[in-house]
Description:
This protein is 45% helix and 16% strand. It has helices at 16-29, 40-46, 81-93, 105-127, 133-138, 164-185, 200-208, 225-239, 263-274, 294-313, 335-348, 354-361, and strands spanning 3-8, 33-37, 51-53, 98-103, 143-148, 188-193, 213-215, 245-250, 278-282, 321-326, 329-334. The strands form 2 sheets. It has a 7-stranded mixed β-sheet with strand order 3-2-1-4-5-10-11, with helices on both faces. A 4-stranded parallel β-sheet has the order 7-8-6-9, with helices on both faces. Helix 1 links the parallel strand 1 and strand 2 (33-37). Helix 1 (16-29) runs parallel beside helix 10 (294-313). This is 6-phosphofructokinase. Residues 4-310 form the Phosphofructokinase domain.
Amino acid sequence: GNVIGVFTSGGDAQGMNAAVRAIVRVGIFLGCKVYYIKEGYQGMVDGGDNIQLATWESTSSTIHMGGTLIGSARCLDFRERPGRLKAAKNLVELGITNLIAIGGDGSLTGANLFRQEWPGLLRELVDTNQITMDRLTTCSHLNIVGLVGSIDNDFCGTDMTIGVDSALHRIIESVDEIMTTAVSHKRAFVLEIMGRMCGYLPLVAGISSEATMVFIPEDPPEGDWRQGLCDHIKESSKTDARRTHIVLVAEGAIDRFGNIIKCSDVQKVLTERMNMDVRVTVLGHVQRGGRASAFDRIIGTRMGTEAVLALMDAGPETPACVIVLHGIDIVRTPLMKAVETTKLVGQKMSELNFDEVVNLRGRF
Ligand code: F6P
């Protein structure tokens, strides 16, 4: 049977465990050996106890858990060729020629590079007597399938990444909680929302929580945002005398000149110009914490299943794919194109308008 290695890399996200569980169970069901590669790429480089055979039972009672039980790390060693050479040796020794990488765009780019280098790495391992020629022959191709696990929803080509929905729940729960104290004191709250250069979470959270204003990187406010915010509050107060205002600020929010809009800037405006009592709350890693929502458990399971099926279908010439959500369908899409478009959006964000970003992302 085939030998599969699964690892999670980059920032953890709720629903990763559901994906790992599905990969292990579908893999075993189809007669494969599945190995956990713990601590992301670092575990692959370090080998030893970090690479362990997965059993069916080891995934019991994990589907609801947040985070990633097999650990994740940001790994510098894997960025250098000597690190990748060690990783290749560790995989080949166990006959692992199928990898499922669960992570963000950085982690998936690394996986693709590894795949391209694989024949050269194996040749070097033979030349330096670290593996036999036999091993090279049986392990000559590395198949890679990616799953996008990230709370940010910043990956092009998928409607939702694993973890976004749970993060959204965390944000809304936090806003609901803050609301009770905000209303009691007639205070305004400015909340910083994580998500790197992607405004999906604050935008959707804003709709779900009746926020007064949302600042996101993809759509810098036209004109003077300070004045715009004050005018909006004055205008809306005519028809809706609210006891509180909630403003959501994406961590990557910018003004029309490309300057970061900080929560403290918004607080200053509301305090000085609107005479409001204002508090700032940075939600931070609370967003990434806690249980996986039903939606993340389900897409994690469906994507994990599809990842194993994609590996089973892959031949030496099949390009690496990433498993994505299109509408309600789980489908395969070329990994490299998705990674390149994601990079492009990041680099050109300031030159693109909101619609262009949405189009490039595929479905926002
Ligand atoms: O990419 C996920 C994410 O949580 C971002 O939203 C955030 O900017 C970043 O990771 C935080 O990174 P770290 O966990 O290393 O502090």
